[in-house]
Amino acid sequence: MNVGFIGLGAMGRHMALHLMKGGHRMGVWARRAESAAPLVAAGATRHDAPAALAAASDVVFTMVTASGDFEQVVLGDEGIVHGAKPGSVVVDMETISPAVVRAVALRLAEKGIDMIDAPVSGGPMGAEQATLSIMAGGKLAVFERVKPLFECMGKTVTRVGDSGAGQITKACNQLALLVAAQGVAEALHLAGRLGADPAKVREVMMGGVAASRVMELFGKRMVERNFDNGIDTRLYHKDLGIVLDLAHDAGVASPGGAAVMQQINALMGQDRGREDLAALITVLERMSGRN
Known about the structure:
Elements: E1 2-6, H1 12-21, E2 25-29, H2 33-41, E3 45-46, H3 50-55, E4 59-62, H4 67-75, E5 89-92, H5 98-109, E6 114-117, E7 120-121, H6 123-129, E8 132-137, H7 140-153, E9 154-161, H8 165-193, H9 198-205, H10 213-224, H11 233-250, H12 255-269, H13 280-287
Parallel strand pairs: 1-2, 1-4, 2-3, 4-5, 5-6, 8-9
Antiparallel strand pairs: 7-8
Helix pairs in contact: 1-6, 4-5, 8-9, 8-10, 8-11, 8-12, 8-13, 9-10, 11-12
C-alpha cells in the first residue's frame, strides 16, 4: 500500500519505519530535512507539501503535537485535503481534541476522504518496539481497511467507537495515568520524609495491590531521580488541558485532574516542560521545604 507519514519525531519516526518494514511504500513530509532523513535513507520518498504527499498516498498518518498542528497539515493552504483522493484515508495518531477530530472529519468527508482518529499509548519505547496500544474511532469498514497498518505499529489495536471515540478514550487514559502518577509521587515522597527508603517502599508496593505500570515506570524514575528520559511534561500538560476542557463542557467533576494540573503547572512555571513527568515529585519536595 502507498502510505504517507507526517510527524517524524521520537515516536513517529519509529512508527513510519515499522510500516516500511511491513512492506508498504512510504512517503513523508517534514518541515525540516533532518527529520525526514532517517526515513529517506531507508527508502522513503520526501514530498514538498502535505498535499503532494496525500496525492501519492492511499493512507496518510499524522503524528504531530497539538490540535492546531493537525488542522494546519490537513486543512492549511497546502494541506492534505488539497491533494488526497476520494476514498483515501487520513489517520491522526497524536492526542488532540475530539471536537477538532470530528470537525476535520466532516471537512474531509465533503471531499470523499475518510478519517480515523487513532491516538496511542506506550510512549517512545512502545513506538520503537511496535508494541503501542492503539485506540481507534471511525467507521468500522474504514477501520478494517487500516487495521493491517496499525498492526505494523502496535500490539493492541481496538476500535472503540465512531469518530472522536479514539481521542475520548485517550483523554480518559491520560486522566487515569496522571492521577496515578501524582499518587505515586506523593507516596514515595512521604516515605522518604518519614525516613524509609523510597526504593524499598516502591519494591514492596510493586508486589501488592498498589502495583501498576505507572508505579513501575514513573516510580522508578522518581527513585532514581531520572527526569531526562520518557515523554515531556509539556505534552502531558497539553493532554490534561484537553481532559479538563472535556470535563467542563460535559459538566463532569474532575477533582483529581484539576489537582494534578496545579502540580504540572508548577513544573511548567519552572521552565521544566521538557523534563519527564517523574519530576512531579520535585514539586512536592519544594512544597515540603526541600530545595
